[in-house]
Amino acid sequence: MRNRLLSLPIQLAPCGGEPYKQQIARAIEELIVTGRLRADDQLPSINELVAMLKVSKNTVLGAYQLLQDAGLIRSALRRGFFVEAVGDCALKPAELASRPAQPPPIYASTVRPVHAPGVHTPPPPVPVRFDFKVGRPSPHAFPWRRWAALSNQLLRHAGRAIGEYSPAEGLWGLRMQLADYLASAKMLSVEPEQIIIVAGTQEALSLIVANCLDDGAEVVMEAPGYTGFSHLLAQHRARSVQVPVDAEGLRTALLPERALPLAYVTPSHQYPLGHTLSLARRRQLLEWAARNGTLIIEDDYDGDFRYASAPLPPLVAMDPTRVVYLGTFSKVLGPGLRLGYLVCPPALVDSITRRKALLNNGCPWLEQAVMARYLESGEYSRHVHSLRQRYRKQRDSLLDGLQRVWGHAGEVSGEHGGMHVAFRLPDGSASATEVARMALARGVRLLRCRRPPAAAGAMSVSCCSATPRSTSAPSRRR
Amino acid sequence: MRNRLLSLPIQLAPCGGEPYKQQIARAIEELIVTGRLRADDQLPSINELVAMLKVSKNTVLGAYQLLQDAGLIRSALRRGFFVEAVGDCALKPAELASRPAQPPPIYASTVRPVHAPGVHTPPPPVPVRFDFKVGRPSPHAFPWRRWAALSNQLLRHAGRAIGEYSPAEGLWGLRMQLADYLASAKMLSVEPEQIIIVAGTQEALSLIVANCLDDGAEVVMEAPGYTGFSHLLAQHRARSVQVPVDAEGLRTALLPERALPLAYVTPSHQYPLGHTLSLARRRQLLEWAARNGTLIIEDDYDGDFRYASAPLPPLVAMDPTRVVYLGTFSKVLGPGLRLGYLVCPPALVDSITRRKALLNNGCPWLEQAVMARYLESGEYSRHVHSLRQRYRKQRDSLLDGLQRVWGHAGEVSGEHGGMHVAFRLPDGSASATEVARMALARGVRLLRCRRPPAAAGAMSVSCCSATPRSTSAPSRRR
Description:
Two copies of one chain form a homodimer.
Chain A: H1 20-33, H2 46-53, H3 57-69, E1 73-76, E2 80-83, H4 94-97, E3 130-131, H5 144-155, H6 158-162, H7 172-186, E4 195-198, H8 201-212, E5 218-223, H9 227-235, E6 239-246, E7 249-250, E8 262-265, H10 279-292, E9 295-299, H11 315-318, E10 323-328, E11 340-343, H12 346-360, H13 365-376, H14 379-406, E12 411-413, E13 420-424, H15 432-441, E14 444-445, E15 447-448, E16 458-462, H16 467-471
Parallel strand pairs in A: 3-14, 5-6, 5-8, 8-9, 9-10
Antiparallel strand pairs in A: 1-2, 4-11, 6-7, 10-11, 12-13, 13-16, 15-16
């Protein structure tokens, strides 16, 4: 449990015109949205607040009720009131919303850190007002009404479905819809039988690593690259062979010529620098893999977003026997769904399915069933399309802003697709670490890229999750 | 994909009074619910059925529409119509329900086998009319209305919650509610911080095995025991040391006296024979573990159901530093939720959390959030209570039936708790294999226990998932 608070910094304006209960609720809301109250903090008891503010018990009860209705706090029987971890401050009942016009509150991150460095970052020392955290979709874009309607429809059948184990490899309907989607959206021709539904890209990587690696094995990955993968390798006692990237993506000329079981790449939008692997390099990579007996993991984590030229064909389209393709719904709908998929070479389907069964017997039924319907109806495609428009605009604002501040100094990469761009600071400026620190002290979170040399002085900046918090206040409920 | 059917065995009664479209829909429903049509079978096209039945196109379209509305089939654009994998045949629109009274349809299993023997069994050769499959809750008991209402409420906040990674160890609210529940329902005093939310018991086992075992390690398990665990051990190149069980549970006197990292037991209702580990044996087991430095996995897979005496204290209550306690919602609500938890000794919390983060970054947000509310409101406790009444009655019917057929011959075990009983055939009768085969040929599925000597001639029979299918027709929509 977090803090147990005995008092709160609340000043009531007796002649303010606004009823006390709304003043109290608003003051507490401010404390929550500015991050001074954190998820799971315990609020003062009713009596404590009564004593402190010299108001009636009903007033305090009314204020807490308003906050509960707004999803900002919860009550736990005989324990008291707690700040809600999942409350979306954007949704308030009419009463709370009736306060005088003022700048919209900016949300502090209430996500608790996990113990896997590189997968998530620890919480910042000050409230984050503009969070340019990488890889999160705009929180206002989630189609919750539609999701609720589909869930509702499907839950009528839930007894039979939830009362059983679904297939470990995923619901057939979802795999079939995904095959259709990949055919139309990415020109990928895959059989539904090749698709295995997993709890996000991280689980896909876990399954492949557990399936394909022995202790001490060496695995090629990009430098800089996704640290969630290098931590996974370390856990499996495998070693990473770091191959640098440049503006054409992985520098294939530097690939070691020896038998290596796995190579992990992000061809469509290199993580974190955002480069696209060129066609020539794609060919070289596949030829290298064929020579050395390597299985390639193609992580297309945000491949749905492409703003300029037509995308290059995925690696898996060029050599379906040697590439495992990873897709995810985390970037389009949200990582809280824990839903992704891998497209396996036929030879791997059985062993990965068996692993998934012994790991956790498959993914939850409801998310899969809803997603299948959402794909089937064409809504998913339309949603991706509208996100693409939205994210393109947000990217444009971000590039404008960078230009205004830095002029032609510095260097942007990754702006042609995906959900973030990288920005390399000009020579002679403060270090990326220093800039990120200064920004954070002002409530702006950036992600500093860590690995030299390609990433020296570079920072990744989301053009998706952050900007809506500062610019889209009027359209928040979309 | 399964079969592509070009025709169906449908006879229309021209003077039957019932419109053709309903006759057709009903006939196809019968084929589905009796298992002659299987999940993902492709139905004849509209034109094929028109040609076969000599009816109008609109009639066939109408019939397919009725079946779609009932969730029994689905249409896939440009591919045709398919039997639905998740359809609950019990829920039909008014039109379909208006047919003449007749015995309720019995459901065939539409679950597809996975490739993990012991986790699931392959589909039977004939339609299963009475499925005494072990470990599935009654499909009619799932509180879908309430689940839909809670999902609906929570999805309003989904953008912010699904748009983020939740904590890998699970939502704080759920862990807090679980700590409360364990305190009141099992007199277990645990801190929320010790609870880690996982995708079911199988994932809990995967995490522990990956965390605690090296190649070639030896692990104690019960004989007969849960084969899903022995397969997991094999995958991790660990070996099982099989210790027999008797009427008091694990025969602790036979435990090997050497340093062993792990022991896996099911004390409250031994799987599959159903014995309860006696208090004396519990003490011996814990003393043995302390002597040999062993961590005990206590799998309380259906410990919510106890029909006679008060339950013994869980092992974890007797030695919280040496026992990992596994709980699951699979048996109360359904395995399709993929939601369970482990209560870790404090020393293990960090490493298991880190493993969960690197494995798949946590469980989906919605199931966790709904479950937290369902626990908080007290509805979960009430649901368990009403299930206990229901399952006790069903167990009584089952015991009556066994008595009627076998008299005092044979031997029942595990009838005082849990969701299934085991029945040992009397000496001189056909073998368990033979009895199970004969039963299956008549559409009755039993689970034969496999490992001698304790299990020779024994069969496990669910008293939960099967009986409702034959007896609870009038209350199906509960």
